[in-house]
Amino acid sequence: MKEVVIKNSPYALKEKILECSVSTYETHRSKQPFAFPKNMHKALIAPSIDESFVEETGEQLAQSPNIFVAEVDGTFAGYVQLSRHALDRQQELPLCVISDIFVLPEFRKQGVASQLLNHVKQLAIENRWSNLTATIWAPNQASARLFEKEGSTVQSRCFRFGPTNQAIDLPAAPKQSRSILSRVLPRLKTAALFIVAVQIAVALGISLS
């Protein structure tokens, strides 16, 4: 088996990760177009990836603290994205959401996704996360089988009324601020705010696993 290396994503791979996230989004939207706002990638997914490479002060990071890439013999093969502040030292809540896991077609069925997920599971052990979750869309049985094979169990099911009412577009993502307030607010996260954020993520299906 070829050598697979899992590491924090360098900034140089950000554009490649954005391309992969578009592919994932379009695949899911083609199967359930009514469930996805047409601008979801631009308004929500792309900004979350951009934020993963920016310090709270607005400075560019050399590598992302929450996106990990898999390289096979030195070649980019895929990535996994975790919730932005899961690994922050100030993070007091032992929770983490897997926002996305993606493997390039030419590297699939070679154990790359399992190794990415095993890396996250090891982080969960080291950081004592009591709740490591991912949202899997109904048509994505391949991801469901992956998570089940790696020891995950169904924690909840999300039912959408309709089901074919078209999701409306999301508001544009706010521009990143470098103000003092923007640096202080992330440190003031409370349990209630975090739980609300997770509930919104599940409701909107932010995770594209």
Task: Describe it.
The chain has helices at residues 14-31, 40-51, 112-127, 141-149, 180-184, 191-204; strands at residues 4-10, 63-72, 75-82, 95-103, 131-134. It is α+β, with helices and mostly antiparallel strands and 209 residues long. Helix 1 runs antiparallel to helix 2 (40-51). Helix content is 35%, strand content 18%. The radius of gyration is 17 Å and the shape is globular. It is built from 6 helices and 5 strands, in the order E-H-H-E-E-E-H-E-H-H-H. It starts with a strand and ends in a 5-residue tail after the last helix. A 5-stranded mixed beta sheet has the order 1-2-3-4-5, sandwiched between helices.
Helix proportion range: 25-40%
Helices, by number, come to 6
State the low-pLDDT regions, or none: 178-200
Q: How would you describe the oligomerization state of the chains in this entry?
A: single chain
- Helix and strand string, N-terminal first? EHHEEEHEHHH
Major sheet: 5 strands, mixed
**Alpha-beta classification:** alpha+beta
Question: In one word, what is the shape?
Answer: globular
Mean pLDDT: 84
Give the strand order, joined by hyphens, for the main sheet: 1-2-3-4-5
Instruction: Determine the N-to-C terminus distance.
Output: 25 Å
Q: Beta-strand level of the residues, as a percent range? A: 15-25%
- How many β-strand stretches? 5
Radius of gyration (Å): 17 Å
